[in-house]
Amino acid sequence: MTALLEVEGLVKHFVAERSVFGRPTAHVKAVDGVSFTVEAGKTLALVGESGCGKSTVSRLVLRLIEPDAGRVTFEGRDLGTLDAAHLRAFRRDAQLIFQDPYASLNPRMMVSQILTEPLALHNLVPAADRRARVEELLRLVGLEPRFARRYPHEFSGGQRQRVAIARALAVEPKLIICDEPVSALDVSIRSQILNLLRDLQDRLKLAYIFVSHDLAVVKHIADRVAVMNLGTIVETAEAQALFAAPRHPYSRALLSAIPVPKPRAKRSRIVLEGELPSALNPPTGCRFHTRCPYVVARCRSEVPQLREDGTGYATACHRTGELPGAEAIVPSDGGFSPALEKLVAAFNAAEASERRGVISQEIKT
Amino acid sequence: MTAGPLIEIEGLRVTFHGDDGRMTHAVDSVDLSVAKGATLGLVGESGCGKSVTSLAIMGLLPKQSAAVSGAIRFDGFDLLDVPDATLRDLRGNRLAMIFQEPMTSLNPSFTIGDQITETILRHRGGSRRAARERTIELLRRVHIPSPEKRIDDYPHKLSGGMRQRVMIAMALACDPQLLIADEPTTALDVTLQAQILDLMRELKAASGAAIILITHDLGVVAEVCDEVAVMYAGEIVERAPVDELFANPQHPYTVGLLGSIPRLDRRTSHLATIEGMVPNMANPPTGCRFAARCPFVEDACTRLPPPLALLSATHASRCIRAPLERLVS
User: Fold this and answer.
1) What ipTM score was computed for the predicted complex, to two decimals?
2) pTM for the full model?
């Protein structure tokens, strides 16, 4: 079986400065040779610090911006060779959800208009049936059909994000790129949206590219994780394997710093010294070498390649295998006491029976 | 210093008067105290009143539209009752605040050095040269590399993490006794977040200042706080020492918050969710404000507002059904 999406050697350099004659004099190497695959119905998470290129990758995949080099293949078709009509068809298959539901919905459009626009654009549902489809979509994301006549400002942040998800689902995509979809939301709302994304994946067999800097969320939602640093992927593995024992020093530093809700949690935090180098002028050799605690001479001169170990775990580090064991890098949150576990379960049970009823009350208050 | 709290807040109430005559009760009868050298976590979701509480302490709420009542006792002063001039002497000096957005809270048209020396000169006086030296020292203390060069940089030249460190350096300029940090790490990456939290711990150990840390991230609370107050809809719903709160939460809202965090230790298919929405604070419900969203609600909950009752010497919960474990056994 071929993968749903294959990305090979993607490169994007932005011009940062130009000479007086308009010739580029400096480039930001936002994405510099990124490759990964996404299987149908699975979730790949892209993680890394701000400025590592994870959002640029998601836009390149959708060809919202043109790559300088590299290939994106969706269901076996090379997107670079598609003409306008085929590209439009591809965009039906791949959708995007943004971070800020306050900015991504047009305040002048009613929810029904927001949701029928993609239907009309792709000529999917006969005009007469569109109302029914809008109601169906709203129900799918846990909103009441009567909300179709409301404007975005009448909703809370979590409800808006549901509308944004409904809009993405309108065209029945196979792949949704979620760019920090829960970062702007409160903790309790965040868990609702994460549950929804997972339910929808199970029901509709969606694939997600989940861009996030919140590693606990990534652990929860991802099947596979790609860790990015300064425009390159330094490590990619199954989420389980990565969180059990990260191998790249950068992944280790990231995972070891996750704050966990347990006071006095045992942890061996790796604090990275120094500032994140600029993507304008990335370090030679391994781009992480300026901050790496295990740096040797070779790291400064030679670019490490992403090497797979035969189990689907790939690391771009010269010193893979030489580093100390990675157990207990990820801090342990210990777990709840049995009584607390039961109390939390009561929230879940109540939620299961009341989910619809309560959401309908939300808007009344 | 004698024992007893450094700052004591009693019956703090903040009401905003909207233009349309609507009154919003943002903070309602909040009692808090922080001892010298302790860190209090103030936890809650957007709109629960945690930031308004901190602005009230700093005297930064707009006088025209916000009615503040109660008492905030700090070192012999009642901050709600002192003249503005006294407040100006305290602010930036013995009371300091770090805001969430380092991008917007630094002035883009002055160098970071200018902004920090201004604080020192205002409160400590002395020569410009001495103030500049102290600024370099402060920047070094917050681990800004080559501070003697960086001091002349404008904020736009610094990364987000560096700006937040500048904010911290500025807050520390006059060795405050109380530091209020409003979501100091929310805008930062996890690696920087770790650095800033370490820094705050380090500074507390060095100076013995008390810290009020405002956050919605329970992970951050677990790492740096000694005591926690959970706020919901303008009220404190639970208050306990940090170990106790995480091991044995006694308000359903706290339980819901803990359950909605994705866990690192095991894979759960579904996270706990707190359904429904925060009540409209222009017209809060008569009974418990969490009742509409609570899985343990019973009739009595909606009749009278529950008191913040002590369950032990240090643990208080605003829930008439506490202790909660008897509900699930």
Assistant:
1) 0.81
2) 0.86
